[in-house]
Write a structure and sequence with these properties.
This protein has 290 residues and is an alpha/beta fold. Helix content is 40%, strand content 15%.
Length: 290
């Protein structure tokens, strides 16, 4: 019997503390999101590894008591890095994997296991993003600022791989991809502060754009969880109201986190599905333990 796919989540405390409420409308939603994400993954997967730092382990393991089967505080090595480059925590998690894996962000909740084509693929990602205005403008700005790229940036349509989920069996590809990302970052550190969108705007290029382009140049096929998702339909990934019949996968992308109704619906979901965890998080907040 084939071993079930290992799920990986990563939590770099310094990056989360760098934005108000860790990107959510309310501080408590950040904790509830991590609880719901981990608990739903645990419904379908036996092995869930947490790659974090000492502070993250204290929060998610010691305080929230989330059922990770193992954890490592490897991300302590990022203490001297700029927390605005939040994707470094994820890249470090990919780089250290020694067996097939699927990395799942903490704002993703699943209601059924990933399809076998995803669990068994060499490289997987969530979906393709095509010609997003933010990405096109950023790439153009980087070209004008003479950013170093490991390959000639595309001048036609711009494609990126959304990496809400990412991973696969091709571990050599991920080692090489992570090296490429580090090379890109180290070659351009002196230019990051000058980006019109600030240092944090580099994350999508580092992670999503380089991933798509590198896989294409290596002739590697990427298996996408949602193969044909036009940008006009991305919002469907955030609709809790469609669970569990119409959708089985939710990803709270971008600015949706800052909507109060999102926090309300997420809290209600946690309360209904895991009332003991909801009560535990609420008590930690009342006691000001988190």
């Amino acid at each position: 019997m084939m071993k079930k796919t290992k799920i990986v989540q990563s939590y770099w405390s310094k990056a989360y503390k760098n934005s108000p409420n860790s990107g959510w409308a309310f501080r408590e939603t950040h904790y509830m999101s991590w609880a719901l994400s981990c608990l739903q993954l645990k419904q379908f997967y036996d092995e869930i590894e947490l790659i974090t730092d000492s502070e993250g382990a204290d929060l998610l393991i010691n305080k929230l008591h989330l059922p990770y089967t193992s954890y490592l505080t490897t991300l302590d090595k990022l203490n001297d890095e700029n927390p605005a480059i939040w994707t470094l925590g994820k890249i470090a998690a990919y780089e250290m994997q020694q067996e097939p894996f699927i990395h799942v962000d903490g704002d993703i909740y699943i209601w059924k296991p990933f399809p076998k084509r995803i669990e068994n693929a060499g490289i997987v990602a969530q979906n393709i993003e095509k010609n997003y205005t933010f990405g096109i403008n950023l790439l153009g700005e980087m070209r004008n600022m003479d950013f170093f790229f490991p390959f000639l940036p595309s001048t036609g349509d711009m494609y990126e791989s959304n990496m809400g989920i990412v991973g696969g069996h091709d571990l050599d590809f991920f080692k090489d991809y992570c090296s490429l990302v580090y090379n890109f970052l180290d070659s351009n550190r002196d230019k990051l502060e000058s980006l019109s969108g600030g240092v944090s705007s580099v994350n999508t290029i580092m992670e999503q754009y380089l991933m798509y382009e590198y896989a294409k140049r290596r002739g590697k096929e990427v298996e996408y969880l949602i193969p044909n998702l036009p940008s006009s339909r991305m919002y469907k990934l955030t609709l809790f109201s469609l669970l569990p019949i119409d959708v089985s996968f939710i990803h709270n992308i971008g600015s949706n986190k800052k909507r109060e109704i999102t926090s309300d619906r997420l809290a209600r979901l946690l309360y209904c599905a895991y009332p003991q965890y909801y009560a535990h998080v609420s008590n930690l907040l009342k006691q000001k333990t988190v």
